Amino acid sequence: MTFFVKRAAVVAVGAAALFAGAAGRAFGDVVVTVDPSDVKNKISPNIYGVGMEDVNHEIYGGLDAQRLYGESFEEPPVPCDRETIECRQEVSRCWTSLSGWAGELIHDRTKTHGGAASQLMIPNGSLAAMANAGLGNWGIRVEKGRAMVGRLYACGAVDSVRVELQSGDRRRVLASAELDPAPGEEWKRMDFRFVPTDSDRKARFVIRAFGYGRLWVDDAYLADEPTNAYGRLGCREDIVAGLEKEGINFLRWGGTMCNADDYLLKNFGPDRKPYRGFWHQHSSGGFGPREFVRLAAAMKVPCAVSIGVREEIAEAVRLAEDLKAHEIPIVIQIGNEECIAPNASACRRYCELTRALVEAMRAANPKLRFASAAWWTGPDGLAEETFRSLDGVVEYWDLHPFFYSIDECLKVREVVGTFLKAIRTWNPKTTMRAAVFEENGNKHNLERALCHALVLERIREAGLDVLTSCPANALQAYGQNDNGWDQGNVFFTPDKVWLAPCAWAQRMARDAHRELRIAGASDDDRVSVSATRDREGKSVVLHLVNIAGEERPVRVDMKGGSRYGVTRVMSLSGALEADNTPDAPERVVPVDRTAASRDGIVLLPWSYVVVTLARSEP
Asked: Which residue ranges make up each domain of the chain?
């Protein structure tokens, strides 16, 4: 969907001017008063962020280019007590046995490449075979002529080994490659490349061992051959395109995944070591903090990346040194939602560890900025003690507001305002600022989009005291919700990527960004307004949110003597529960209502409307 439109005829709006309604309808049910000459504050340029963590397969199974799931065979076999061919095989639960009665598959924990398990294949003079159909057995999307690349590690020896792509109906081999059948006693990496002869949305990857002998297999990988810089970074190119479509200008990597004991920098990297995750017991370290920063750098947006508060100093310093190569601003967040319990000793320990990590990393890379992840529950004594311990150490304090309804969203001003007031009371000269790295709504429908638009209005009021506001979660695998969080901004299946309404609201706001907030008010408590303008005062943008279930005609009362005319009106509206799905990916999208607003601006029920006005020449 394009956001570029031809310049519309300007509708003059003078001081106290009234928009005339069509067919005799009187406009002015809602009066929005705007004064372009009354500048309230500057607005942070990077408030249009998004938060990313490995919830609902945002990374492993999503952004990560890897098309296989359970690549390292860490998941144990599914218990089975029936006398069938399938039950006879001990195959990791993310894989499916294709062996007959002769061949054997054994889930082995005695000989492994990087994790705690591997898969032993014993053909017994016949065939041992297994298949992987990706995340949730969705199937692997393959395109005719679009090359795929892969690898696996193996040791042992059999008569022959073949990997192949099999069609979803299991009747055709779409591509195949022969591998070294006798890699030997030590683990050997074996690479291959496929060019499918046909397209299929539900293909699967198959490993076959023939003849006699034993072959151990571990750490398999399959991805589309890269066609751009994002693919070369190990990302699914279509998913990154979805993030770009959202128009974000800040990326945050972190969340509860950082609280896992195994969430350590040494467990991430190109070797794709498995590790014990928080949201998923068996996670892949193939796409981690370094890869994330490389992605942000390629997208040319600032980022925040979280490390565990118990991270080893040497590893943290190594990361800081590696990040010198990037020109983008980088914030390092220490931990996630720490000190949740009212436990002074836990908070003191967190502050102690944070100070040590910040001191070491800042010495290695002075360009880095840092954020506290201490849980903000209000201006109590423990919060004050934590602030005083970290004031001057970190530049930001991460706030995680939770909003499950529109009425709750209206309270964000209180959350941010209370924090800023408290820290300025504790130290009037503090340079610490807020950062909303995780704005939670637990919905992905239009109501979430309206909530985010309301949050942005309040964030603009805070000006430069708030770095960014990142709706969680950046991505979500459609239909694969297995931990309760249901708030994706960009959704995906193996072959589709589309934006949820909240992502469209983010795009609308970003496209209409102006650097100054000006005086703006509505006389209707169900219509919220945020007024902004550029530095020269040549254009004014009104962000209007109608949280009523009926239309609201609007009259704009422009103060200050300047005359402005409407040049563009974009509207996002629908039923509150409306969302976008694979079958209807554009059910809720911004609509250009410039032409429909020639005779006056009408806010549709449940809508976020962005009105751009240009100053008329005298």
From this structure: 11-43+514-615, 49-65+226-511, 85-224
